[in-house]
Amino acid sequence: MSVVRNNAEPLAIVFEDDGLVPNSILPFLVYQGAVALDPKNPEETIETLFGANRWGGTWRNGVYDYLHYHSTVHEALGVARGHARVRFGGDHGQELQIRAGDVAILPAGTGHQCIKASDDFCVIGAYPPGSRMEITRATPENHAKALKTIPKVKLPPADPVTGGDGALMRLWR
């Protein structure tokens, strides 16, 4: 049985560089309700899906409540439990409600910050192979450095949700 719902197509948003958060020329993607979670082990459902699509370095937690981004790596956030309101794209970005079964894919440089989360909110984070995750705060100095590192971040080998033929492969090329 497939854990990805048929015809999963993500919402795609391009966030502008706001002078502190570089964001990306690549679209931020959100698959809404795309993953059919095992109610007994929703975290494992997402970890297995990400692993099958060659996204690793997984962790289980929430989303930090301060604005940050990653300038050295793309990130996938799969919601295993609960729901949260997260601002993506920095202070001038967009607040989205993400819930269990959703997956957000953040190209390197995409700002994110949890605004409010349910008590049971649990996210699985993952990264493409060969990349190193660093947490970067939105400052003018970090922005200048990020503009140099982000273009060097390699494209992932597969979409973390739908694999080698997934939307990310089409939308990020």
UniProtKB/TrEMBL annotation:
Positions the record marks as coiled coil are none
The family database entries (InterPro entries) matched by this protein are listed as: RmlC-like_jellyroll, RmlC_Cupin_sf, UCP019307_cupin, YjiB-like
Gene3D superfamilies attached to this UniProt entry: Jelly Rolls
Q: From which domain of life does this come?
A: Bacteria
Record protein name field: Uncharacterized protein
